[in-house]
TrEMBL record, chains A, B:
Pfam families xref list: PDH_C, PDH_N
Keyword Metal-binding belongs to the record: no
Gene3D superfamilies: 6-phosphogluconate dehydrogenase C-terminal like domain, NAD(P)-binding Rossmann-like Domain
SUPFAM superfamilies listed in its UniProt record: 6-phosphogluconate dehydrogenase C-terminal domain-like, NAD(P)-binding Rossmann-fold domains
Record keywords, A-Z: Oxidoreductase
Domain Prephenate/arogenate dehydrogenase: 4-274
Name of this protein: Prephenate dehydrogenase
Annotated GO MF terms: NAD+ binding; prephenate dehydrogenase (NAD+) activity; prephenate dehydrogenase (NADP+) activity
């Protein structure tokens, strides 16, 4: 094992969950956060000890997407780690920030674990949050093999499955499988905000499933969507067009057009089931 | 107990599940279906015995929405039961059919259990399918108290919660909480039909939840949507408008507009959680 000491920068849900998973594998974990209460809580949960500048093998930067670049630059300036990765849910913008700030790209592996909960903060952390989940890694032309090996080890120790993908391809993919579906769930759930009690009494499991992720933190999702605006907008436009077309078809009695959408939906759903 | 003998007409998922629940409470259950194999399978599952014209307390008409009226008329003509209910997911059309066909409306209680599975047919039936679920009842001005009492007993024996609501109000409500969300789930899932393998590898639990119901039978849902076309179209138009507006706001950087939708979504979701 080459990953023996790790630093987690940002002890929120994702950072603390990764720290807990690493601790379970006997990796020494150091914790850092701008909020001292967040570090204290993560320590009390057994996620590691407070970071006092110790040099580590890998630093996991678990801060909001728009802060990744500057945090990476600062950590590299003090030679905090041999390698660095982040967990932001968009990749092109943080990479562009890192380049702009003159970061060393050989030791940086952009990453994104596809896992989360509706709750945030260290108290919501789970040692098995990443178990069986995909974890995207977006090495670029400059990425060094040592950094990639350490980051792959992190993914493996967290029980996740590494998916290597280009940054732009990643952002388009998560627009389709995560970001746009979040906005769609919000739009369905938004219709319930003014619904009467009898209507709500008829809500079943299907609606609860469709809208579950709409419970996510609006300000966190504002940041995520802002960082991936164009790919998300493109997917939303296509879904909006399909829904408007279905509405028009229902009104005109063109049920074949509606059935075609239902069939395509069943096909698409089948590709991610089982 | 006044419900001692029941007839289930249509031994699909819903009919057979109701039959199993009634059998568990020692109600005598008779089974009927145009498909002899469906009746045989339901009998083998312990759902009851084949109906040979015995008069019962309550007939549960579990056939597609557009067949409810004619089946009710035929059953009433042979005095099959003291009371009748149906389980169709729309209510205004079957009631209009029943009126048009001259059915006795005093013995008919339109009903709709809000429960289902992605699979259909008697083999998918579950004795606890309705447990804890809402079951809409839409008695009209003509509905007799004896019929309503028997139907309420059915709901109770199935472990469900009766929700009394007018037929038009029901149809608008289920457009919002069930039918439109199904089309939305299909539209999200349809985007996956042509996605590449790396994109699908990044799919997480959130997407699986949002799209789960899109696995439902397209031809069954075609019928359901056709029977509730205008209310569903109205909801779909509003959701499509919200998504197109969100796409436009993302492109122009108007993040407050996006955040407002996310907030309304979190509010709406909160009304059906817990």
């Amino acid at each position: 094992m080459t990953l023996q000491k790790a630093l987690v920068v940002g002890t929120g849900l994702i950072g603390t969950s990764a720290a807990l998973a690493l601790r379970e594998k006997d990796v020494a974990v150091y914790l850092s956060d701008v909020d001292p209460d967040a570090v204290r809580l993560a320590r009390e949960l057994g996620a590691g000890r407070r970071w006092a500048g110790e040099e580590v093998d890998l630093a996991v930067i678990a801060v909001p997407p728009h802060l990744v670049g500057e945090r990476l630059a600062a950590l590299q300036k003090q030679s905090a780690a041999r390698a660095y990765t982040d967990v932001a849910s968009v990749k092109a913008d943080p990479i562009a920030d890192a380049e702009r700030l003159g970061c060393d790209l050989t030791s940086y592996v952009p990453g994104h674990p596809l896992a989360g909960r509706e709750r945030s903060g260290p108290a919501a952390a789970r040692v098995d949050l990443f178990s069986g989940r995909p974890w995207a890694l977006c090495p670029g032309a400059a990425t060094g093999t040592a950094a990639l090996r350490l980051t792959r080890e992190l993914v493996s120790l967290c029980g996740a499955k590494a998916v290597v993908v280009g940054a732009d391809e990643h952002d388009s993919a998560v627009a389709l499988v995560s970001h746009a579906p979040h906005v769609v769930a919000s739009a369905v759930a938004a219709r319930l905000a003014s619904a009467d009690e009898v209507t709500l009494a008829l809500a079943g499991q299907g609606l609860r499933d469709v809208t579950r992720i709409a419970a996510g933190n609006p300000l966190l999702w504002r940041m995520i969507l802002a960082g991936n605006a164009d790919p998300v907008a493109a997917v939303l436009d296509r879904i909006a067009a399909d829904l408007a077309s279905a509405a028009s078809a229902l009104r005109s009695g063109d049920l074949d057009r509606v059935t075609d959408l239902l069939r395509r939906g069943a096909d698409g759903q089948g590709r991610i089931s089982a």
